[in-house]
TrEMBL record:
Domain of life: Eukaryota
Source organism phylogeny: Eukaryota, Metazoa, Spiralia, Lophotrochozoa, Mollusca
Keywords: Glycosyltransferase, Membrane, Transferase, Transmembrane, Transmembrane helix
Broadest EC class assigned to this enzyme: transferase
EC numbers on record: 2.4.2.14
TM helices/strands, residue ranges: 20-42, 54-74, 86-113, 125-151
Originating species: Acanthosepion pharaonis
Single GO molecular function: amidophosphoribosyltransferase activity
Name of the featured protein: PurF
C-alpha cells in the first residue's frame, strides 16, 4: 500500500543514509570549524604574543638604550664639566697666586733695588762730587794763589 506523500519503506534506508551523511557532514564541518578556530586562535595568540613580545623587547631595548645613552651623556658631560671646572679653578688660582707673588716680588725688588741704587748712586755721586769739588777748589785756590802771588811779587 502506498499513501500519497509517504515514502515506501524501501526508500527509508536510503533516506536514513542521506540523513546520516548530511548530519555527519554538518557535524564534521562544525567540528573542523571549531577545531580550526581553536587552533587559529591559539596560533594567533602565540604568534601575536611573540610578535608583540619581540616588538616590545626591541622597542624597550631601543628606548632604554637611548635613555641610558642620554643619561650617560648628561652624567658624563656634567662630571667632565665639573672636573674641568675644578681643574680650571685650581689652575686659575695657581696662576693668579703665581702672578700675584711675582708682582709682589717684582714690586719689592724694584723698591729695594731703587732704594739700594739710590743709596749707591747718592754715595757715588757724593764721593765723585766731593772729589770734583776738591779738585775744582784746589785748582781755583791754586789759580787764585798764583794770581795773588804774581800780583804780590810784581809789586
Amino acid at each position: 500500500m502506498h499513501f500519497p506523500g509517504h515514502m515506501p519503506p524501501t526508500s527509508w534506508p536510503c533516506q536514513q543514509n542521506q540523513f546520516i551523511t548530511i548530519y555527519l557532514s554538518i557535524y564534521l564541518c562544525q567540528f573542523i570549524s571549531i577545531y580550526l578556530s581553536i587552533y587559529l586562535s591559539i596560533y594567533l595568540s602565540i604568534y601575536l604574543s611573540l610578535s608583540v613580545h619581540i616588538y616590545l623587547s626591541i622597542y624597550l631595548s631601543i628606548s632604554v638604550s637611548s635613555y641610558l645613552s642620554i643619561y650617560l651623556s648628561i652624567s658624563v658631560s656634567s662630571y667632565l664639566s665639573q672636573s674641568v671646572h675644578i681643574y680650571l679653578s685650581i689652575y686659575l688660582c695657581q696662576f693668579i697666586s703665581i702672578s700675584l707673588i711675582s708682582i709682589s716680588v717684582s714690586s719689592y725688588l724694584s723698591i729695594y733695588l731703587s732704594k739700594s741704587a739710590y743709596i749707591y748712586l747718592s754715595s757715588y755721586l757724593s764721593i765723585y762730587l766731593s772729589i770734583y769739588l776738591s779738585q775744582l777748589i784746589s785748582i781755583s785756590v791754586h789759580i787764585y794763589l798764583s794770581i795773588y802771588l804774581s800780583i804780590y811779587l810784581s809789586h
